[in-house]
Amino acid sequence: MRELSEILRAELKDPRVGFVTLLSCDVSPDLRSAVVHASPLGDARATAATMKGLQSAAGFLSTALGKRIHTRRTPSLTFVRDESIAQGVRVTTMIDEVVRRDERKAHGE
User: Fold this and answer.
1) N or C terminus: fewer CB in 10 A for the chain?
2) Band (87; pLDDT cuts 50, 70, 90)
3) Is 58 exposed, middle or buried (CB count within 10 Å of its CB: 0-12, 13-18, 19+)?
């Protein structure tokens, strides 16, 4: 994950790929495939473009990863969108709003 993040930051030049956080990676036992859970930032259009860009660049990213890590095989990469960060932000926003509303009620507003 660390090496893949560095490759994304330093080497990938696809303009579709915006800000993205790699959250986890599930590698098959035989090292032939890996599912990378990514959380892109931005509106719906930007996040969709980022995910398309990542999937389009999967071959390049796998090759670049193979040059950095020394394993028997380099896995083919599949990127899936992970909504956990966005859900966490939504929940935090909702909690903050409830707290503000309760504070206003407590102060008689």
Assistant:
1) C
2) confident
3) middle
Query: How far from chain centre, in Å, is Cα 56?
Result: 15
Architecture of domain 2-83: 2-Layer Sandwich (3.30)
- The residue ranges of every structural domain in the chain are 2-83
Task: Identify which of 1, 4, 43, 6 has the alpha carbon closest to the alpha carbon of residue 18.
Answer: 43
d(CA 40, CA 23): 10
Q: What whole-number distance in Å separates Cα of residue 78 and Cα of residue 37?
A: 9
Phi, psi of 80 (to 5 degrees): -125, 145
**The predicted structure's pLDDT at residue 109:** 64
CB 40 within 8 A of CB 50: yes
| Overall pTM surpassing 0.85 (yes/no) | no
